[in-house]
Amino acid sequence: MKRQYLLAAAATAAVSFASSAWAQDSAEPIVIPTHNWSSQVVMAYVIGGIFESLGDNVEYVPADSQAVYEAIRIGDVTISHEVWQSTFGASFYNAMAKGGLIDAGTHSAATLEEMGVPQYVIDDNLCPGLPNWEALKDCAAVFATADSGGKGRWLEGPQSWHGDLMPLRLEALGLGDQYVVKFAGGADAIWAELASAKKERRGIITFNWTPNFTDAEGFSFIEFPPYFDGCRVADGGDGACGSPKGWLKKAANFKFPKTHPAAYTAFTKLSFSSADIGQMAALVDIDKMSHQDAATKWLADHEDVWKPFTQ
Ligand code: TMO
Asked: Is 227 in the pocket of ligand 1 (CB under 6 A)?
């Protein structure tokens, strides 16, 4: 009896040793999505470069940033490397609940995705009381633009990020008569508007997030009533709340650990800080590099950060 048990244990140990020592990553490409903000695209190529350093093949596909979680669930896309809690948490957990998408860990960077103003708006006291949101009640004219019909403008990101989150928030806070939401065609339109407003030191409210390249020069997020689970209209609440001080996660298709064990292990270890992510965005949005060149430079300059993920 005892002897049989020992033999069985020895056989099991030999098998598991063999699988960990010799399991190879599949030659099938790891499919990495690209979306429409800079750090995400640079990080796609950074992570692709890390996988290539392990001998893996990679492929990049432009993808809608909400629909990508269903694409990962069914296996058309392998990973998502910037799952921002405020914007994508619901789509991420919906796909997980249906089965096929797994949580591959959390970056060290804490996040916020929120409406706000450039620092000079606070420093010049253009709307006394900001960043407390209640100050907005007395400042609509400061934020009016040619296309805002006399109301203050909130320049939101592309509607593909949030849907009607911000229009619903304006109504819920009782600001709907004074402010109107306009959606930017892309992130670059937000940066262009911020740059032209800054030249004139003019009032402007835009959607923005951290970590981002704007952290370096100063951007002040508006302080709305605190977020809690269920406060949004989409989650059954009245919508009168700000965004969560959130996490930044990674997601993967559930087969990824089996098909590409080495890449998957590196991906679970991978964790970027706010400084890392701010740098990735700045290489494109300030230094005007291409996303690929930015990733190549970032990998060359920061081996101390990423090599440990592969070891
Ligand atoms: C998902 N985003 C960082 C653009 O808010």
From this structure: no
Question: Which ligand 1 atom minimizes the distance to the CA of 161?
Answer: 1
Q: Which residues of 240-261 are buried (b: 16+ CB within 10 A; e: fewer)?
A: bbbbbbbebbbbbbeebbeebb
Cβ proximity of 283 and 42 under 8 Å:
yes
Q: Where are the domains of the chain?
A: 27-109+246-310, 112-235
For 114, other C-beta atoms within 10 Å of its C-beta total: 23
Domains 27-109+246-310 and 112-235 share a fold: yes
Q: 92 CB less than 6 Å from ligand 1?
A: no
CATH topology of domain 27-109+246-310: D-Maltodextrin-Binding Protein; domain 2 (3.40.190)
Is any ligand 1 atom within 6 A of the Cβ of residue 84?
yes
Query: What are the pLDDT tens digits along the chain (311 aa)?
Result: 344 444 444 444 444 444 444 579 999 999 999 999 999 999 999 999 999 999 999 999 999 999 999 999 999 999 999 999 999 999 999 999 999 999 999 999 999 999 999 999 999 999 999 999 999 999 999 999 999 999 999 999 999 999 999 999 999 999 999 999 999 999 999 999 999 999 999 999 999 999 999 999 899 999 999 999 999 999 999 999 999 999 999 999 999 999 999 999 999 999 999 999 999 999 999 999 999 999 999 999 999 999 999 99
Fold of 112-235: D-Maltodextrin-Binding Protein; domain 2 (3.40.190)
Pocket test for ligand 1, best of 35, 39, 80, 87 (most atoms within 8 A of CB): 87
